[in-house]
Design goal:
The structure is a single chain. The protein is α/β, with parallel strands linked by helices. It is built from 12 helices and 5 strands. The protein has one domain: P-loop containing nucleotide triphosphate hydrolases (Rossmann fold, 3-Layer(aba) Sandwich). Bound molecules: adenosine-5'-triphosphate (ATP) and magnesium ion (MG). The site of magnesium ion has 3 residues, from loops.
């Protein structure tokens, strides 16, 4: 099985958007389940084992991140409805120390939030050094849902006269500069686009409608957005192309098979933290001497 693990590990590179490449979503299969490299019949077993391993690797890596306190990790999830952001976050984070992780979900902005520049509300939820911060939706909504619905820009009272290609290019530039700033200052960033197919979304919507316990997950607004599928695809393609940088690249994760999606996300995250080569902090000599003195004192206690 170890060999298969290595294979899955290498495979995840194929889901990274190489900086400078133009993203065409039709070239990414949302139903991918191992491909030729990993026959589907073993893929599921491998993915499940991988998830268990990576979740445990992640837990160890998180401990180091927390002890080292020099880096933070920002994990961004973007997706269309029903792609499985919530479930993926839940699975990947099992085993993590809750003191070292925060999850922020971003919905329609409030009046106060919209009265500030477009990165303001997200900034307040960034993880501090030592922490993992998960963004369930993020500032990317400002170039995704807002691009599909430019009327959402009206309350922002922006100086721009037109919301044309130049306007959106400038937003991408702002995001890239913001992320560069974060990385330069010790916040590592991993970005996931959970890529679901239109057919699978339909299946999951129907399941939400047909299963009383899942009814709460369905909203009529989701169906309205589904009608704008092509617009969303274009907005994603543009945003992923423009904002996959060497500091913070995107991963396009096939989301039709939840088990594959979760295994890939866990594997990429574990690899990312391990690549930081963090170490448990070592005490300076005089501090070690103080430890030895404290030990002696404790042992002398009657
Ligand atoms: P999810 O769909 O992620 O599981 P949810 O169903 O619990 O979350 P919703 O009420 O659907 O929550 O809230 C998310 C909605 O908020 C989405 O439709 C999203 O596009 C919208 N949203 C998020 N950020 C913004 C923004 N900056 N401007 C406008 N709409 C936004
Ligand atoms: Mg929703």
């Amino acid at each position: 099985m170890a060999k298969d693990h290595d294979r899955l590990d290498k495979l995840h590179r194929r889901f990274e958007v190489k900086p400078g490449t133009k993203v065409k979503l039709k070239n990414f299969d949302p139903g991918w389940a191992g491909g030729d490299e990993l026959p589907k019949k073993v893929a599921r077993t491998v993915a499940d084992a991988e998830l268990t391993d990576d979740v445990s690797d992640l837990a160890k890596a998180q401990e180091l991140l927390y002890a080292d306190r020099s880096r933070a990790l920002l994990v961004i999830f973007q997706a269309l409805d029903a792609a499985g952001k919530d479930g993926t976050i839940k699975h990947v984070m099992t085993g993590l120390n809750p003191q070292g992780v925060s999850v922020s979900s971003f919905k329609v902005p409030s009046v106060e939030e919209i009265s500030h520049t477009f990165l303001w509300r997200y900034t307040q939820h960034l993880p501090e050094r030592g922490m993992i911060g998960i963004f369930n939706r993020s500032y990317y909504e400002e170039v995704l849902v807002v691009r599909v619905h430019p009327e959402y820009l009206a309350p922002q009272k922006l100086p721009a006269k037109k919301f044309d290609d130049t306007f959106w290019r400038e937003r991408y530039e702002d995001i890239n500069a913001y992320e560069r700033h974060l990385v330069r200052n010790g916040t590592e960033i991993v970005k996931f686009f959970l890529h679901i197919s239109k057919e699978e979304q339909k299946k999951r919507f129907l399941e939400r409608i047909d299963t009383p316990e899942k009814n709460w997950k369905f909203s009529a607004a989701d169906l309205k957005e589904r009608k704008l599928w092509d617009d969303y695809e274009r907005a994603f393609e543009d945003a992923l192309t423009a904002t996959s940088t060497k500091e913070a690249s995107w991963h396009i994760i096939p989301a039709d098979n939840k088990w594959m999606m979760r295994a890939l996300v866990a594997s990429i995250l574990a690899a990312k933290i391990q690549s930081l080569k963090l170490k448990h902090p070592e005490l300076p000599k005089d501090e070690k001497a103080k430890l030895a003195a404290a030990k002696e004192e404790l042992l002398r206690e009657k």
